[in-house]
Amino acid sequence: MKFRLQFAAILLVGVCLPATAQKVPADSMTARVHSTTAHSVVVPMPKPVARVNGAVLTDHDLLREMYAIFPYARQHNGGFPKEMEADIRKGALKMIEFEELVYQEALRQQRTVAPERLSKAERDFRKQFASDQQYREFLKLEMNGSESVMRTKINRSLLIEDLLKTDIDNKSSVTFAEEKSFYEKNPERFKLPESFALQTITMLPPKNPTTEQLKQVRKRADAALTQAKATKNYEEFGMLAEKISEDDYRVMMGDHKSVAPSDMPATVIQVARRLQPGQMSDLIPVDQAFTIIRLNAHSEPRMQKFEEVKNGLRSEMTQAKTEKLRHELDARLRKNAKIEEL
């Protein structure tokens, strides 16, 4: 876990705070007013949301973590989807509590950060700002104008990073033997089903078509088939699909990518199984529509070889082990901790 101090992107001048976080009660005087050349911005004073063994975590800490969980909120003026906000907040609160517990454990173990490493981290952090003025504005708003306070926060993040590295990252690696054993014990996980890679050009009838309208569909389909037969490759068929096909896949050059037999009409599957890659069908009636398929590949059911899956399997197993270790560390640190959610 790399240290996270993206304060600038979230709280600089308060402009990125969601509306709910910007509001200041009329009877509250606990807010900082920051004057800029253009206007004054009212930034709420941090409000406690939790105490972890006496250490106070604020709504500013919580908001940063909510943005880390759901960064897309910045694209919507700082707002979170209402149906997701409660879960995002809950997850963010648990995370900042966990990080505070990790920090306290690092202090208990008397861990330290080398001065040169801390200095480099400070320099890297300052690079987030577009100008020195922006950096100074940030210090005023979030660090009481103190570089010492900022340095303390960076040091805290590095201590958290170090403990997580030793207690989680360094223990979450997966050996070749573990990978191979998992592969051999779970063969069903690595069986690939039959699939077809194909493109389509489809002519669709209107809703509740008349006999004359169905004749027009067939006429368009016959014309489409003549044009399709003149195409020589994937690109030419795809360009024609974009031009004349009436189904949703026309915007993707008619490409359905990899499709399971169960996801296609039986009549289409029967034809697809008779084609060779690169070949094209005649018109295939599907209900009252007509489709033309171009087969790009047909994959028979098979077992994936270990060499094919080992890299993805290693990542998956490493992630699972990481989550397990993190959960265990969180449970161990919470066991004797006093945590109050306010």
Index terms:
342 residues; alpha+beta; Triger factor/SurA peptide-binding fold; Chitinase A, domain 3; 4-stranded antiparallel β-sheet; 3-stranded antiparallel β-sheet; 12 helices; 11 strands; 49% helix; elongated
What's this, in brief?
The protein is built from 12 helices and 11 strands. Strand 1 (31-35) and strand 2 form a beta hairpin. It is elongated and about 80 Å long.
For the record, the CATH architecture of the largest domain stands as Orthogonal Bundle
CATH superfamily of the largest domain: Porin chaperone SurA, peptide-binding domain
Could you tell me the mean pLDDT? Answer: 86
Question: What is the subunit organization of this protein?
Answer: single chain
What sequence of helices (H) and strands (E) makes up the elements? HHEEEEHHHHHHEEHHEHEEEHE
Helix content: 40-55%
What is the terminal-to-terminal distance? Answer: 27 Å
Number of strands: 11
CATH class of the largest domain: Mainly Alpha
What is the beta-strand fraction?
15-25%
CATH third-level topology of the largest domain:
Triger factor/SurA peptide-binding fold
Strand order of the largest sheet: 7-6-9-8
Low-confidence stretches: 5-41
Overall SS class: alpha+beta
Shape: elongated
